[in-house]
């Protein structure tokens, strides 16, 4: 029995759209690299400039640091040195608010569930003003604290991703399960893969698993020192840098904003 045209046509259109959207478009990075990688760290934790900066500078690697004022204030000169040596300073809000499911936030009586979009914007811009005044840079990149992208709760929940799109070139999430397709990724919701607490071999395996379609892999950590739940091991970071810098491994290693600028200028249209 022939199916009515009104049934067949949507099926044909659906299959054609699926085939078109799933076609691999390809992407060319500098130096014929197969993938781009950005190394990033959150919170402006002291170990990042006390320990990590010298290691990164030793290999002339530029990282992206998503900072909040309360930690920068205790290491201002070192953060100014990070700027001078070419690292990217990015915004991580002034107050580092996350979901109130974190006990430490509930004890303070503040959380994203209790915040409005207006309050969120004010907090983001407060952090921006501090960075401009203290480090003399204007961040174009942002990372969502705890990876949370909302304010409010229930039916009143609102995304603050549009605020990030308004004020920044990129916004980076946290604890994701995929890398970024350079032709498709939303710059306001760039994904990242965690490196804290992992061995070099574990990180290498994660990277190799996410190299599909010339992906842009953003790695994210917190402290730098003795490997722990929220600490990337210094020895691990050094092994990682050496691995990523080896031309035979096919990576282009640069800051989030430098890669974003290149991707934006060279990405192909994705229907």
From TrEMBL:
The keyword Signal applies. GO terms for molecular function: hydrolase activity, acting on carbon-nitrogen (but not peptide) bonds. Residues 35-271 form the NodB homology domain. CDD domains: CE4_GLA_like_6s. InterPro entries: Glyco_hydro/deAcase_b/a-brl, NODB_dom, Polysacc_deacetylase_ArnD. The keyword Signal applies. SUPFAM superfamilies: Glycoside hydrolase/deacetylase (SSF88713). This is Polysaccharide deacetylase. The lineage of its organism: Bacteria, Pseudomonadati, Pseudomonadota, Gammaproteobacteria, Alteromonadales.
């Amino acid at each position: 029995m022939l199916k009515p045209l009104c049934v067949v046509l949507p099926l044909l259109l659906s299959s054609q759209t699926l085939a078109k959207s799933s076609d691999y478009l390809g992407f060319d990075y500098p130096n014929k690299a197969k993938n781009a990688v950005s190394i990033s760290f959150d919170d402006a934790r002291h170990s990042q400039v006390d320990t990590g900066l010298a290691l990164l500078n030793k290999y002339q690697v530029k990282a992206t640091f998503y900072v909040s004022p309360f930690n920068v204030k205790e290491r201002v000169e070192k953060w100014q040195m990070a700027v001078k040596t070419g690292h990217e300073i990015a915004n991580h809000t002034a107050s580092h608010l996350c979901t109130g499911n974190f006990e430490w936030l509930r004890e303070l009586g503040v959380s994203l569930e209790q915040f409005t979009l207006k309050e969120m914007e004010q907090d983001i811009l407060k952090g921006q003003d501090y960075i401009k005044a203290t480090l003399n840079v204007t961040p174009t990149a942002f990372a969502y604290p705890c990876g949370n992208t909302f304010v409010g709760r229930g039916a009143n929940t609102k995304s603050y991703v549009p605020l990030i799109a308004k004020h920044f070139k990129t916004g980076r999430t946290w604890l994701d399960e995929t890398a970024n397709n350079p032709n498709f990724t939303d710059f306001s919701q760039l994904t990242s893969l965690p490196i804290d607490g992992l061995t070099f071999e574990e990180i290498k395996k994660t990277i190799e698993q996410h190299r599909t379609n010339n992906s842009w892999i953003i790695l994210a950590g917190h402290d730098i020192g003795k490997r722990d739940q929220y600490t990337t091991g210094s020895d691990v970071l050094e092994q990682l840098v050496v691995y990523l810098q080896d031309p035979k491994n096919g990576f282009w290693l640069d800051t989030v904003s430098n890669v974003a600028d290149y991707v934006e200028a060279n990405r192909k249209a994705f229907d």
